[in-house]
Write a structure and sequence with these properties.
Length: 215
């Protein structure tokens, strides 16, 4: 769908074609890491054909080894049709979760699946987290850019659908800040539906009492 285009001024954004290089996200000066890839054959087309109400939605906190089961339960609860493609989606969510958990060395992950049809998070910002993985499975990918003098990017890149990006948040111990901002693309009025996976590291699930979690 959209092609990831690195910004010349954004030296802090690293792009890799293999997951083995994701550990470089922890290196000084790496504000973001993009895993440039394509989804498995048939998966994106299947997701595009599903009715929005059949797309999986959830927000749960689980251990990394529980991600596969949690994703399957989310699909069941959301009425996502059981198929070979659904199994591919669950496999992919699990794969991304394992890589991200390894990079972040976290005992828990918050798994969030959002179905978006409006201009959610359309303003460029930095998330109030340590770090975050974002992957758009359906629709236009996340956009990013380096803040200019007025605080907003002028040169904007769009991540390829299916390519995850790892982003540092405001809680990452980094000084000075890189100036890298991101947003969800404005889609209101276009009829577009996005399916977004978000993974956050969680140290203590008890700090999130309103969200279901397992120990």
């Amino acid at each position: 769908m959209n092609v990831a285009r690195p910004i010349a001024a954004a030296a802090a954004v690293a792009i890799t074609k293999t997951p083995d290089a994701l550990s470089a996200f922890r290196e000084p000066g790496c504000a973001a890491m993009v895993w440039s890839r394509s989804l498995r054959a048939g998966l994106q087309e299947w997701l595009e054909q599903l009715a929005p109400e059949q797309l999986p939605t959830a927000r749960v906190i689980v251990r990394p080894d529980q991600i596969r089961q949690a994703a399957a339960e989310v699909c069941d609860a959301s009425g996502t049709p059981d198929s070979e493609e659904r199994a591919m989606l669950i496999d992919d969510i699990d794969q991304l979760a394992q890589h991200f958990a390894s990079v972040m060395q976290t005992p828990y992950l918050q798994l969030r699946l959002d179905v978006i049809t409006n201009n959610a998070c359309r303003k460029f910002h930095v998330d109030a987290v340590t770090a975050r993985l974002v992957c758009t499975y359906r629709g236009t990918g996340t956009q990013y850019g380096i803040a200019t003098a007025d605080g907003q990017p002028t040169d904007i890149a769009t991540i390829t659908t299916g390519s995850p990006i790892l982003l540092r948040g405001t809680l990452w111990p980094e000084h000075p800040r890189s100036g890298l901002l991101h947003r969800s693309p404005p889609i209101e009025g276009t009829g577009e539906t996005r399916l977004l996976l978000v993974l956050d590291p969680v140290t203590d699930p008890s700090e999130h009492p309103s969200r279901w979690h397992t120990n």
